[in-house]
Write a structure and sequence with these properties.
With 67 residues, this protein is α+β, with helices and mostly antiparallel strands. 31% of the residues lie in helices and 16% in strands. It has one domain. The protein is built from two helices and three strands; from the N terminus they run E-H-E-E-H. The longest helix has 15 residues, at 26-40.
């Protein structure tokens, strides 16, 4: 289950990468992805780790470039 106390308000945009706590379960991550798409039409990549939103500069630094 996602630790909702650890969740921060994010303005998720199409193509964002979201990092959720390592304890998050795959089913919950799928529900989060579906909810984001329903709420604002954005598709995001969700990975486990400390929660944060990676901006374009951070993604580029890691070698993840937006199309």
């Amino acid at each position: 289950m996602i630790d909702f106390d650890a969740v921060e308000k994010l303005r998720v945009q199409d193509g964002d990468v979201l990092v959720v706590p390592e304890s998050s379960e795959e089913d919950d991550m799928q529900l989060l992805a579906e909810s984001i798409q329903i709420m604002n039409g954005a598709r995001a990549v969700i990975v486990r780790g400390p929660i944060k939103q990676l901006d374009t500069a951070a993604m580029n630094k890691l070698g993840w470039h937006r199309a």
